[in-house]
Protein: Sulfatase
Organism: Flavobacterium gilvum
Amino acid sequence: MEDIKYSNSIIKSPKKGLLLTALLVAQFGFAQNKDDNFKGVIGKTLAESKEYWPEPVNAPKGAPNVVWIILDDVGYGASSAFGGLIQTPVLESLANSGLRYTNFHTTAICAPTRSALLTGSNSHKVHVGGFSHTSMSAGFPGWDGRLPSKNGTIAEILRDKGYNTFGVGKYGVTPDEDATDAGPFDRWPTGKGFEHFFGFLGSATDQYKPDLIEDQAHVTPDGRHLSEQITDKAISYIQRQHKAAPDKPFFLYYSPAAVHAPHQVATKWSDAYKGKFDDGWDAYREKTLANQKKLGVVPANAVLPERNSLIADWKKLTPDQKKVYSKFMEVYAGYLTYTDYEIGRLVNYLKESNQLDNTLVFVMIGDNGASKEGTLQGAVERQTYKVGETEEQVFQNNLNRIGEIGTPQVYANYPLGWAQATNTPFKSWKQDANSEGGTHNPLIVYYPKGIKEKGGIRNQYSHVIDILPTTLDVLGIKAPETIREVKQDTIQGYSFYNSLNDANVVSSHKIQHYYIFGSRSIYNDGWKAAAAHHPNSIEVKEALADKSKANLLNADFDNDIWELYNINEDFNERKDLAKKYPEKLAELKKLFDEQAKKNNLYPLIDWSDVYFRRIHKTPATEGQSAQELLTKANK
């Protein structure tokens, strides 16, 4: 302890800071720490002081509103806006008055896509390589499912730039353990920049009995379809804000659960499609491809890939099979058309309130490709296959319950044949990060004040991480160095703002990696290397049942077969060039490894490996068969 003389007395202080305070008090009679952000003068009295009030943050005068719309589990060839046979007149109208982006990409599954969208950075980089669900996350930087504060969301950025920020529908990136009314709430939407949020935190929910929250509490659903409820809430948020501050812009994140399973919709929507798909999924693909060529959203010389070997020739199906499979598709189509109607209610409100012309709208038609999760037969229950059940037994159950498909009583999802059809012109589907069928989705950009050409086509390569920087570029906002005093990472996406009024501008986005559950690929300026990853099902069952066989789960990562495509010439991956250009393949595989290290992608993990680690730590799983465990893992 130091002894210091002052004014003929001794001050004893254990800390120099306290000593200094004591000296100031002794000399001046008061002491006050100065806030670094304070620009006024603090004297001993008010007369000796000068007040300072920081200027409120306001968006620039006339700044546009921003609406992001993202649908769920919609393939490239589903919506009529991109040539599909499902009527979406509102999306068509937005596209015809705006732009169709034909070369836009997602991550191949929902949570990684949404984390990348909200932050403008790759999903593993922001810790959501899989899901935020406990059973589908892992304790590594790229896999723990927790968005870091250093990767601010679009809502946080715009909130701090003078925007009101609203979100409705599916969020999907809140860790399960945080998703109770006890919080913590820092990873709920309201903790990530949304001033108001109404929807659900998980990846999927029942459309009539959703696991619903508003702001920071669970609320009771009112029995109406979720899409109607979220649209009402979005309009009410905007109405309330517009009345209080008509010149203040808003950001709206509109994210319906549609058209993720369960496929549930009022019969008036599905009945409109009765008989429309009776000629089957093969005919659907052919008709859709022809429409896509007319619209110009695929190359004029495009050719369909071969029908997947798992999918039956429609002409060889029995009458009962055709009846059941058609019913599933009628419900899905009605569900998508109904979703388009609800989007129309939002658009019409903005138009009637004279706000639409000054609104920048991005519509992502799908957060991944069409879903394969309905399996070969389609599903009427979340647990599609019961223990020991055969394909024929699953089909007979679906046939017996055909009248319930689409109703609140069942968890409906269409069969695999319709996933391939609605993914036209691509092969594979959701979860397949190696394939354009998993990652290639339609994008519409609508902005009357900023787009001169109406109904234009844009073919520049882009990715979901590009939406945030493009939005900021249109608004004239720089990415912040800090958000609420937290230093920010560099945003990884590339703005494509310059393409809004220039169809020939070259894309700035040259390199992009993809990875979901082991399937992976790397894109580099028109070339793409890709590896599917499908562990042998028997090996997976054995490993899940027997802890000693855990090595079987990842046994084939090194044996995965890589393919090579020239996407500029072969956009839907029909010609594997791996044997023709082995040096190019080796170059891209090396680039994938570099990107993986840069973006926290390692270790390579697939869902079965993560689930294996979980089940062998859980006493409740003892005595259950491998099939039962697999069924649980698929939930």
Remarks:
- Confidence is low (pLDDT under 50) at residues 1-29, 536-541, 614-635.
